[in-house]
From TrEMBL:
<dbReference type="InterPro" id="IPR050187">
    <property type="entry name" value="Lipid_Phosphate_FormReg"/>
</dbReference>
<comment type="similarity">
    <text>Belongs to the diacylglycerol/lipid kinase family.</text>
</comment>
<dbReference type="InterPro" id="IPR001206">
    <property type="entry name" value="Diacylglycerol_kinase_cat_dom"/>
</dbReference>
<keyword id="KW-0443">Lipid metabolism</keyword>
<keyword id="KW-0418">Kinase</keyword>
<feature type="domain" description="DAGKc">
    <location>
        <begin position="1"/>
        <end position="139"/>
    </location>
</feature>
<keyword id="KW-0547">Nucleotide-binding</keyword>
<keyword id="KW-0808">Transferase</keyword>
<keyword id="KW-0594">Phospholipid biosynthesis</keyword>
<dbReference type="InterPro" id="IPR017438">
    <property type="entry name" value="ATP-NAD_kinase_N"/>
</dbReference>
<dbReference type="InterPro" id="IPR016064">
    <property type="entry name" value="NAD/diacylglycerol_kinase_sf"/>
</dbReference>
<dbReference type="InterPro" id="IPR045540">
    <property type="entry name" value="YegS/DAGK_C"/>
</dbReference>
<dbReference type="Pfam" id="PF00781">
    <property type="entry name" value="DAGK_cat"/>
</dbReference>
<dbReference type="Pfam" id="PF19279">
    <property type="entry name" value="YegS_C"/>
</dbReference>
<protein>
    <submittedName>
        <fullName>Transcriptional regulator</fullName>
    </submittedName>
</protein>
<keyword id="KW-0444">Lipid biosynthesis</keyword>
<keyword id="KW-0067">ATP-binding</keyword>
Length: 316
């Protein structure tokens, strides 16, 4: 068997407003310098990394071959889904975060230094099982599974995400590396626009009904929107997912909650903040709402989703 490390780079150069490009440059210089064999694929359009990863997972690889993804949370999401759809869904993924928000890397405590990552991969390549979330739309495609590394949000957070993506401010603030600030500004800009909606939650046979939900987000870890600790107690290695429901509040209360969220996480004690820790949960809405999965916008819709916890193999 060939024991020499071979790295297959899969890069989204658009990620992180230039950060992924820089990280790629640093990584390839390092690989050349250390005489490590590698090849390079770049995604040329949104969604292509799913197919590239699936194709990679469909092939047989020696244990010394490593798929290394460079990009943000959206890129990781695509690769995760591609690998899971492939013939070898346990194919490990190595990931160098180079996006805007990098919430997964924050939660999993991953390095963004290519040297640290490559040095570690050279020393050992023992994949670790890491939690992710999975979901199906039982009414539309009961056999088609989708995966998320971070969260699936409906309502306010998705609306903020939508506004962040189209915001001119994003470009300016991205250059200042202030993902949190972009999100914070858009939180304030969106709060008066988001209507309430009905949400039904079903968990282990128990049903919960909310008439005036503002957002319902199922998450794999604490962070949202580039480092905001929505649910500080969520653990990425708990083999659980967490569904957070926030009910409508005033602008004044939002500001208070937002300060508490940044200060000490005490926003979770508010009576309008609810969360469910589980390995399986059903979330139903009855009005068209914005939605996001791992920070990528999905079509505004009415949702009936079955979520559960899953895992993937991560090399770090
Ligand atoms: N060549 C490309 N041209 C345009 N978009 C692309 C291309 N390759 C990938 N994408 C898309 O770029 C989007 C953003 O990528 P990604 O989420 O990785 O970066 P980010 O938004 O900067 O980081 P984060 O999600 O961590 O905030 C993804 O939706 C992905 O599908």
């Amino acid at each position: 068997m060939d024991n020499k490390l071979k790295i297959h780079l899969l890069v989204n150069e658009v990620a992180g407003n230039g950060r992924a490009k820089k990280a790629l440059k640093k990584t390839t210089a390092l690989l050349i310098n250390e005489n490590i064999n590698f090849d390079l694929r770049k995604s040329t359009y949104a969604g292509e990394a799913i197919y590239i990863a699936q194709e990679y997972g469909d092939q047989k690889h020696s244990p010394t071959e490593i798929l290394l993804v460079i990009g943000g949370d959206g890129s990781l999401n695509e690769v995760l889904n591609g690998i899971k759809r492939s013939q070898n869904p346990k194919t490990p993924i190595a990931y160098l975060p180079a996006g805007t928000g990098n919430d997964f890397a924050r939660a999993a405590n991953l390095t963004n230094d290519p040297k640290v990552l490559i040095d570690h991969l050279q020393q050992e390549f023992k994949p670790e099982r890491i939690d992710c979330g999975t979901f199906i739309f039982p009414d539309i495609a009961p056999n088609k599974k989708y995966y998320f590394a971070n969260s699936f949000g409906i309502g306010f957070d998705a609306f903020v995400n939508h506004n962040s993506n189209i915001s001119k401010l994003k470009k300016v603030l991205n250059h200042l590396s202030e993902g949190k600030l972009i999100y914070g500004c858009n939180v304030l800009a969106t709060v008066t626009k988001q209507d309430t909606f009905i949400v039904d939650i079903e968990k282990n046979g128990q049903k919960f009904h909310f008439d005036d939900a503002f957002m319902v987000t199922t998450t794999n870890h604490p962070y949202l929107g580039g480092g905001l600790p929505l649910l500080p107690s969520a653990k990425i290695d708990s083999h659980k997912i967490y569904t957070v429901v926030v009910e409508k509040f005033s602008l004044a209360k939002l500001i208070k909650l937002f300060i508490n969220l940044l200060k000490d996480g005490s926003h979770v004690n508010d009576p309008q903040f609810h969360y469910f820790e589980t390995n399986k949960v059903k979330v139903t809405t009855i009005k068209k709402e914005y939605a996001q999965v791992d920070g990528e916008e999905i079509k505004r819709n009415i949702f009936n989703i079955n979520f559960s916890v899953s895992s993937f193999n991560l090399l770090r």
